[in-house]
Design a protein that fits this description.
Elements (H helix, E strand, L loop, with lengths): L2 E7 L7 H12 L4 E5 L20 H11 L3 E5 L9 H10 L12 E8 L6 H13 L3 E11 L9 H16 L8
Helix pairs in contact: 1-5
Bound molecules: flavin mononucleotide (FMN).
Flavin mononucleotide binds next to helix 1.
Protein name: NAD(P)H-dependent FMN reductase
InterPro entries: Flavoprotein-like_sf, FMN_Rdtase-like_dom, NAD(P)H-dep_reductase
GO molecular function, one term: oxidoreductase activity
Length: about 180
């Protein structure tokens, strides 16, 4: 059986270090694990209940479908001004609705990422985990990894790679939340 992991990348930069880490995990994922990087987060309109209708923007429908069809959700993100980048926050808002039945509800959720500081983006990661939990995801606390990008090249360091692959394995092993009757 294949476990599908939807990956939300919090940076829109073409040369994003976090995107490249997500691509590394996709390319080196364990057997039976497929990572799908969800494109188009930058095309999402800002969340607004007035446009959250049956004919919502195609980027919204694509995001919801990508997450609904996944078994797990992994955010890979830097930190902006002490929290998660707006593009990721906005994606989580879209995934949180309809209330109680959003595409992310019940899905095991992890968040990892790096910034070029000794903290590695830990505020962004804590905020993303809290937000996803409130949105209904099942946050896997052991899959919150804030990798400092100082004194190490996070893209080539074997220990960093193993740390992130371990986090991915833990996310895959996590049980989804039981669906309410
Ligand atoms: C608007 C902005 C705000 C930032 N704020 C923080 C911050 O609060 N903490 C931090 O560790 N890095 C911060 N950074 C630095 C980013 O972590 C760094 O640019 C990182 O490499 C971006 O990730 P990426 O390579 O995946 O795009 C900020 C960068 C930008 C552009």
């Amino acid at each position: 059986m294949t476990t599908r992991v939807a990956v939300l990348v919090g940076s829109l930069r073409a040369d994003s270090v976090n995107r490249r880490l997500a691509e590394m995990l996709r390319d080196q994922a364990p057997e039976g694990v497929e990572l799908h990087l969800v494109d188009g987060l930058g095309d999402l309109p800002f969340y607004n209940e007035e446009i959250d209708t049956d004919d919502a923007a195609s980027a919204v429908l694509a995001l919801r479908e990508a997450v609904a069809s996944a078994d797990r959700v992994l955010a890979v993100t830097p930190e902006y001004n002490g929290t998660m980048p707006a593009v990721l926050n906005n994606a989580l808002d879209w995934l949180s609705r309809p209330y109680g039945a959003g595409a992310i509800v019940g899905k095991p959720f992890g968040v990892i990422g790096t910034t070029p500081t000794p903290y590695g983006g830990k505020w962004a990661h804590a905020d993303a985990a809290r937000s996803a939990g409130i949105a209904g995801a099942r946050v896997v606390e052991s899959v919150v990894v804030s990798q400092p990008g100082v004194e190490v090249d996070v893209l080539t360091d074997p220990e960093v790679r193993e740390r992130l692959l371990d986090a991915l394995r833990l996310l895959v092993e996590a049980e989804p939340a039981p669906v309410a009757a």
